[in-house]
């Protein structure tokens, strides 16, 4: 995980791998060299290089720092200094001293007098000098050349790294983001002493390590920790990369084991990562304080010094002191408790029975209450604050069912003795998969007795995701964050697949279809990235937690499974993968190889060959259909919304194209498969076939364009009989048509032509997809104050869905799919100020208030009811009063969305007060900003707010994090004018290292340009079309 919500929050729920520098190279690279007379000054001030420090020079020049050549430094010294500061490095002795003073090219002083040379002599001398100078320059600038006594013999001399300066002024002996590979931790013994009164903690970390190759230093991570004592060693710190180095006078030898003991102190974090403090009010109104952890991706180092990278797996034994009225939890069961002379108690936990990455370590100090159940020799418990114990039963029941399912499906039993699911009152992510101690937001784990199935679906989805991680991510872990999708894509896929089997009443298929559509929209941008992509900075690590790693990762796994023969090859392949790499770290190729090796049919498929095209390049294909008689030509190209000469790609995918036709379109065995590997290929179909529908069930991650004739045939078929295609296929056509309109391949008139069949549509997937797309256009027009077109769009939406809106009830609804349909329809109706919708919502709120909360509003209708109520001054105040008292978190969150939807600017200002965390929890600020941004009155206010408060925002939410991504998208995605584009570009450019380089910024700018392009292209014709 870090699992996050995949539905939109406003209208309705809506290999090129990182080949990072190798850290270890062959010993043959360190053979003794002849004496060297180098052009660069002999760098005696730098520590000797370990094997894992050596990097190859680029061919272009002998670089001191990435992008900065020696000569560039001399020519533009000031630029070089600023670049060095940005890289966090310090240049030492930079000047002419870089060059040898014994250069053979020293100019001699001219004699005091000289006879005048002849013209011929002058010409010869000039030519000679030109030749000498030319040869000198060629030799001097020859790439990869080191001058030795015997000339330019060696071609691959490693460049000297430039070392940064540690906090005490000494040279820090490491100059890379990734840690050296010279040391491997084996085990940690952690003792933590939190003081929840002073909001501080002290700790002792004892690390047992093995030496992989000779070294005089150990480099590990530490952030905001004050090292108070280290055992007979010197500790240096380089804060910009959150690294510390322990130096030794004697060399540690390969094969040795050593033990490092570090004592330290720190403040509990006031953000949502590391070891942080949280609080809540109990039933008597008293403030209760607790401490919890969130270490993924880079924050274990904020709680204890450690090798904080996924590949440094080790065992952990943890001790935590506490007051007698508190309890503690960690990854393993408690072994014993000891009373201390200070009156505190020391809880000691069993040593982990598995090796773990540091980001999976977790502990909680709180006063929580559990309910428990034994399943397959594992004690499963759900913890909450005492007041919410009654809301934990559904989570326990769901977790037990899913644990049994995963044990059976993976054929590997969950390896720990216990599995705790803990609801944290103040928690930013949806949940976190810590091994044996999964932490959740309260809204992601707790379900009230009157909760709707839609609310239970949310909780079950998050639990299913996090439990899947106990195998994908915990047991087998990606080697580095560039392959995060191996964790998150698999967990996302398994959450949908498992719930379809374990809890079919939750009807999870509609949600999975929706998130696949949304993933396609993100991946159509030029600012997207490959599933497996290079990650070189902490901000880039944070940005990997996005829809590409989660939803696209899950989507391509679904496509792969759907394309494999039978229903067992995929399962057997992942079982082999889990068994082969249990306890280890992997990359994407390991997964594809495991799936290729499992051949259960006569139709052997090279999975690695097929799937590498989907993970090593960004984006996805557009498949164009051209039919002439019985010949159907399929052509693929990159579906790229922003395309020009600079971004033109020749990308090709290995596409398992599925298709159906008018003679057989509904039964599962109607599906046929054609593999498109090249730019264009042809298949044959009977000439009598009227139409083809590709990408059956939308299981493939691509978009289809049928051409004018193909679209016309499909539209006619739907108008004649809406049930000629499945609801998923109808939704797929709607999504593809809108996407092609955004690309400019079809006109908006063609979009409306397809939507004409919607008056006969009653199924959830096509209705919700059409509503989402039309609402997006409606809001863009509204923000541009195109009042005439806004009115026309309202009329058009109501012409399609007005009848269906009027048919919706306001009572309890049992079916999840019908709840999804109803909430989407009624939220749109009330947003368009349909009188009947407004009246019903007001009446339901009045009944709720007058009953003093005993009259229940159905869960799927709460947001629309609270949003309507918040539009009047009196009801807004009443809703605020209810918000401050209600205990059920899902209901409280919908009240907050209602409060934030107000058109009153004073109240909008109050809504974003969550930055202070007083009435509104800071964790809810991204949701509030998203809600405020959706309204005409709020969207400019929200944009101004993030500009004014950017520094405070990135203090609470890390640069590049999912929360920051969401805030940027919410506040900019509805801009469509050049003035707003200039404003957004100017603001983010000014941030520099505080966020200007984020991928989400590039995505925001690209989205504004696309909005502007779509409006410029279509507005002139709206008079005719609408």
Automatic annotation (TrEMBL):
Membrane topology: Single-pass type II membrane protein
Annotated compartments: Endomembrane system
Active site: 466 (proton acceptor)
Site (described: Transition state stabilizer): 550
Source superkingdom: Eukaryota
Residue span(s) of domain ERAP1-like C-terminal: 691-1009
Annotated signal sequence range: none
Keywords: Aminopeptidase, Glycoprotein, Hydrolase, Membrane, Metal-binding, Metalloprotease, Protease, Signal-anchor, Transmembrane, Transmembrane helix, Zinc
Domain Aminopeptidase N-like N-terminal: 184-360
Gene3D superfamilies the record matches: 1.25.50.20, 2.60.40.1910, Neutral Protease Domain 2 (1.10.390.10), tricorn interacting facor f3 domain (2.60.40.1730)
GO biological process: peptide catabolic process; proteolysis; regulation of blood pressure
Main location: membrane
Biased composition annotated in UniProt, kind: Polar residues: 95-106
Domain Peptidase M1 membrane alanine aminopeptidase: 394-614
Membrane spanning stretches: 122-142
InterPro entries cross-referenced by the UniProt entry: Aminopeptidase_N-like_N, Aminopeptidase_N-like_N_sf, ERAP1-like_C_dom, M1_APN-typ, Peptidase_M1, Peptidase_M1_aminopeptidases, Peptidase_M1_dom, Peptidase_M4/M1_CTD_sf
Residues at which Zn(2+) binds: 465, 469, 488
GO terms assigned for molecular function: metalloaminopeptidase activity; peptide binding; zinc ion binding
Biased composition (Low complexity): 107-116
Family listed: Belongs to the peptidase M1 family.
Protein name, UniProt field: Leucyl/cystinyl aminopeptidase
Provenance organism: Sphaeramia orbicularis
């Amino acid at each position: 995980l870090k699992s996050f919500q995949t539905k939109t929050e406003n209208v309705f729920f809506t290999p090129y791998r990182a080949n990072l520098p190798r850290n270890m190279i062959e010993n043959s690279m360190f053979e003794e060299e002849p004496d060297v007379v180098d052009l660069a000054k002999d760098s005696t001030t730098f520590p000797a290089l370990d094997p894992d420090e050596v990097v190859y020079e680029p061919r272009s020049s002998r670089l001191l720092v990435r992008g900065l050549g020696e000569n560039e430094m001399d020519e533009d010294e000031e630029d070089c200094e600023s670049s060095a500061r940005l890289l966090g490095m310090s240049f030492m002795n930079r000047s002419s001293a870089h060059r040898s003073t014994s250069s053979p090219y020293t100019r001699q002083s001219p004699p005091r007098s000289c006879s005048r040379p002849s013209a011929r002599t002058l010409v010869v001398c000039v030519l000679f000098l030109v030749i000498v100078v030319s040869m000198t320059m060629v030799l001097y600038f020859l790439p990869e050349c080191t001058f030795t006594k015997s000339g330019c013999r060696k071609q691959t001399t490693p460049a000297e790294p430039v070392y940064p300066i540690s906090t005490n002024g000494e040279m820090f002996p490491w100059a890379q983001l990734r840690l050296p590979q010279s040391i491997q931790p084996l085990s940690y013994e952690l003792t933590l002493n939190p003081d929840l009164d002073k909001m501080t903690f002290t700790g002792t970390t004892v690390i047992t390590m093995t030496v992989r190759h000779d070294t005089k230093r150990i480099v590990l991570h530490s952030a905001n920790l004050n090292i108070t004592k280290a055992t007979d060693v010197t500790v240096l710190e380089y804060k910009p990369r959150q690294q510390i180095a322990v130096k030794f006078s004697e060399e540690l030898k390969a094969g040795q084991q050593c033990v490092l003991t570090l004592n330290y102190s720190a403040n509990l974090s006031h953000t949502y990562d590391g070891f942080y403090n949280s609080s809540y009010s109990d039933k008597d109104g008293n403030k209760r304080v607790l401490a919890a952890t969130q270490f993924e991706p880079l924050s274990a180092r904020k709680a204890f010094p450690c090798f904080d990278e996924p590949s440094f797996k080790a065992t952990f034994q943890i001790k935590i002191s506490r007051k007698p009225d508190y309890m503690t939890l960690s990854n393993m069961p408690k072994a014993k408790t000891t009373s201390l002379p200070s009156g505190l108690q020391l809880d000691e936990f069993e040593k982990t029975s598995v090796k773990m990455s540091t980001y999976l370590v977790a502990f909680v100090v709180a006063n929580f209450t559990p309910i428990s159940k034994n399943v397959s020799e594992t004690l499963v418990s759900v913890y909450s604050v005492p007041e919410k114990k009654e809301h934990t039963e559904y989570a326990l029941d769901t977790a037990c069912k899913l644990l049994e399912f995963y044990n059976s499906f993976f054929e590997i039993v969950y390896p720990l003795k216990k599995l705790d699911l803990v609801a944290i009152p103040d928690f930013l992510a949806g949940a976190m998969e810590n091994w044996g101690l999964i932490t959740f937001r309260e809204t992601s784990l707790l379900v009230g007795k009157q909760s709707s199935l839609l609310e239970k679906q949310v909780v079950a989805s998050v639990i299913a995701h996090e439990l899947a991680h106990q195998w994908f991510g915990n047991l087998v872990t990606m080697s580095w964050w560039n392959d995060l999708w191996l964790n998150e894509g698999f967990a996302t896929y398994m959450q949908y697949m498992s719930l379809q089997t374990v809890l079919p009443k939750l009807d999870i298929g509609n949600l999975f279809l929706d998130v696949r559509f949304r993933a396609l929209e993100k991946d159509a941008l030029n600012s997207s990235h490959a599933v497996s992509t290079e990650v070189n900075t902490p901000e880039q690590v944070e940005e990997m937690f996005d829809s590409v790693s989660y939803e696209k990762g899950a989507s391509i796994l679904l496509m792969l499974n759907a394309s494999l023969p039978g229903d067992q090859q995929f399962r057997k392949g992942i079982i082999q993968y889990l068994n082969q790499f249990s306890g280890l770290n992997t990359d994407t190729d390991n997964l594809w190889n495991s799936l290729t090796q499992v051949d259960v049919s006569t139709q052997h498929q090279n999975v690695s060959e097929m799937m590498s095209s989907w993970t090593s390049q960004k984006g996805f294909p557009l498949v164009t259909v051209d039919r002439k008689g019985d010949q159907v030509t399929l052509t693929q190209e990159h579906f790229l919304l922003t395309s020009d000469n600079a971004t033109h790609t020749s990308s090709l995918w290995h596409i398992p194209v599925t298709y159906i036709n008018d003679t057989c379109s509904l039964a599962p065995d109607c599906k046929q498969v054609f593999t498109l590997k090249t730019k264009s290929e042809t298949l044959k179909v009977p000439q009598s076939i009227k139409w083809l529908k590709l990408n059956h069930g939308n299981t493939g991650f691509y978009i289809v364009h049928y051409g004018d004739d193909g679209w016309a045939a499909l539209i006619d078929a739907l108008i004649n009989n809406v049930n000629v295609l499945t609801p998923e296929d109808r939704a797929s056509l709607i999504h593809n048509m809108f996407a092609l309109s955004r690309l400019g391949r079809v006109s908006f008139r063609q979009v409306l032509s397809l939507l004409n069949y919607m008056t006969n549509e009653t199924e959830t997937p096509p209705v919700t997809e059409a509503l989402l797309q039309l609402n997006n256009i409606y809001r863009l027009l509204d923000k541009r104050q195109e009042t005439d077109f806004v009115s026309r769009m309202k009329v058009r939406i109501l012409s399609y869905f007005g009848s269906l809106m009027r048919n919706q009830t306001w009572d309890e609804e049992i079916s999840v799919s019908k709840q999804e349909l109803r909430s989407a329809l009624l939220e749109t109706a009330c947003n368009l100020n349909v009188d009947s919708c407004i009246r019903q919502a007001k009446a339901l709120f009045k009944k709720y208030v007058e009953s003093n909360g005993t009259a229940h509003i159905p869960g799927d209708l709460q947001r629309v009811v609270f949003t309507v109520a918040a539009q009047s001054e009196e009801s807004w105040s009443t809703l605020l009063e209810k918000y401050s008292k209600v205990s059920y978190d899902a209901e409280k969150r919908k009240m907050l969305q209602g409060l934030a939807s107000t058109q009153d600017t004073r109240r909008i200002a109050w809504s974003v007060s969550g930055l202070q965390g007083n009435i509104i929890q800071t964790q809810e600020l991204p949701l509030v900003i998203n809600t405020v941004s959706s309204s005409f009155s709020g969207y400019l206010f929200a944009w101004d707010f993030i500009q004014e408060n950017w520094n405070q925002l990135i203090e609470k939410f890390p640069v590049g994090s999912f929360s920051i991504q969401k805030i940027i998208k919410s506040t900019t995605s509805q801009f469509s004018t050049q003035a707003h584009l200039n404003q957004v570009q100017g603001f983010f450019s000014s941030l520099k290292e505080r966020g200007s380089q984020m991928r989400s910024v590039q995505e925001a700018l690209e989205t504004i340009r696309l909005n502007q392009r779509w409006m410029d292209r279509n507005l002139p014709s709206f008079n005719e079309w609408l």
